[in-house]
Amino acid sequence: ANRAGSADRGSGAAWVREVDRAHVWHPYEAAATAVGTRPSDAPFVVRRAEGTRLHLTAADGTEHEAVDGMSSWWSAIHGYAHPVLDEAVRAQLDRFSHVMFGGLTHEPAARLAATLVETTPDPLRHVFLSDSGSVSVEVALKMCLQYQRSLGRPAKRRVLTWRGGYHGDTFHAMSVCDPEGGMHALWGDVLPRQVFAAAPPEGFAAEPDPAYLRHLEELVAAHAGELAAVIVEPVVQGAGGMRFHSPAYLRALREITARYGVLLVFDEIATGFGRTGELFAADHAGVCPDVMCLGKALTGGYLSMAATLCTTEVAEGIAGGEVPVLAHGPTFMGNPLAAAVADASIGLLLGGDWRADVARIEAGLRAGLEPARALPGVEDVRVLGAIGVIRLDRPVAMRAATEAALRAGAWLRPFRDLVYTMPPYISDAADIERITGGMLAAARASVGA
Ligand code: PMP
Question: Which segments show compositional bias classed as Low complexity (predicted)?
């Protein structure tokens, strides 16, 4: 395959962009071929990332220093190039980088597993370390289906979720994403057919809606004989629309699923590690799921790693079945570099005052986003923990919005009708002001105000 441009290896932002345009796929984008052009054509080139700052070069060669309002999609909670995390990777690199996990184990994985078991609700005691959030969801659903099979209930192999959710891009994970989204439109004929409840009514502090509680109960009851599990994102539905809901619905799901012999999976990939103001979003409800998925901030955003935790009841159920093994074993399972930095990241989080950091950011986002309510085209403004969202009455003008935010000094990546942020917890008041200023600018640029 010929590379575009000269045969020489180049360098610099212009060369990076040239190769990128010719050969590299980006998330949810078309390949740049003769028959298709990318909707957001020219990605910014990252030259350096440090603290809360990304150093970027734009297509026209201009350089920007932007506060990262995205934490690299919920993950870089301690910011970039953190000395403690850098050192954790380096120290492990001096010992070994990766070894297979079949038949071998090592201290970084053991330390991380011990930390996760200590940190998550008590009944979660068995840890499967995989390499991405989507895979941790696959593992979670596989555990649930296998558990039911092992217990002699093979008909229980469907999964209930609520609309408006997002759980990843692999096929089983896609099957529990919002059915109105692109995944189902394109893949409806190949995805497993799951059961969808309505999206939970919005509002973290809203009183639970009795009609919705009845809806959940009736749907689980009606499908109990074929349901292996219910999977939901607790408190915040992220990539499906940045919607918040009452923890009361999680308590209801806990009670209903237990009653009907259905397992409950909480996907805390986005919400885990303090983002919503509690260490885990499930803590708002005071309930423990049977299976929990973690990812993103698990490694402080340093390396690709995710975890699926389950209760002893689930693990024993599987172990007691006709096929006692869980048939899943990715090559990079338990990656030592990722495990070492994950354990360091959790240590950094718990060793600091993350509650105060998140509360401070929440207050800054509330104050800074308040003026958005008066903007034309703004439908809703919502803040919870270190998450801030402006919802417009129309799709965001991506390019104009991104550039307006950059001029205000913030890196944002709006989607659909949403301009949103989940900044690193180390963001100070000035960082948050830049981010909220960038969000207002992005909203204005989208509605032509
Ligand atoms: N579940 C949730 C709630 C997520 O937000 C994401 C990532 N946006 C995933 C699963 C998938 O994780 P990954 O992108 O690491 O595969």
Answer: 1-12
